[in-house]
């Protein structure tokens, strides 16, 4: 039996100027010094599970708060601020309750360049860096996937 395809990453790059980033500084100013710990915990959840996004819900708020040693309300406030300052993409968050960004997706794609196959969800996709042969995009509307396609597969008898 084949090994299941790994989605997430074992580690992720953190830019050396992470704390100097204007978005991060605005979040720290609004939410306090523990914001750095919460942001890193959120990024770890994103990169660990799906690799380039995470579904935002009460469970994730609880898990991050428990991991960092703070209150769920603090995590929820930070996520609202992170979306406001565009650390996470607002449109994807509002539509799907998903935390992701173009930068997160670009880092994920770069980190998975040696994998045989990488699957991405079209509805969460923000990056244009998907022109590699090992990347497949689920949910993209094309003539092969649409229900009105006139082609049919017929079993051939031997």
User: Could you say which overall geometry the principal axes of the C-alpha atoms support?
Assistant: globular
**CATH architecture heading of the domain at 18-106:** Orthogonal Bundle
String of helices and strands: HHEHHHEHEE
Q: State Rg.
A: 19 Å
If you consult CATH, what is the topology of the domain at 18-106? Arc Repressor Mutant, subunit A
Counting DSSP E segments of at least 2 residues, the number of strands comes to: 4
Q: Note poorly predicted spans.
A: 142-152
Look at the structure and give the mean pLDDT.
Answer: 86
CATH class of the domain at 18-106: Mainly Alpha
Q: Could you say which structural class the secondary elements and strand pairing correspond to?
A: mainly alpha
Number of helices: 6
Describe the largest sheet.
2 strands, antiparallel
Tell me what portion of residues adopts beta-strand conformation: 5-15%
The amount of helix comes to 40-55%
Distance between the termini: 27 Å
Record the strand order, biggest sheet: 1-2
Can you characterise this structure?
There is one protein chain. Mean pLDDT is 86; it is low at 142-152. The chain has a domain at 18-106: Arc Repressor Mutant, subunit A. It is mainly α and 158 residues long. The chain has six helices and four strands; from the N terminus they run ααβαααβαββ. The radius of gyration is 19 Å and the shape is globular. It has helices spanning 22-31, 35-48, 58-68, 72-84, 90-96, 102-111; strands spanning 54-55, 98-99, 118-121, 135-138. The strands form two sheets. It has a two-stranded antiparallel ribbon with strand order 1-2. It has a two-stranded parallel sheet with strand order 3-4.
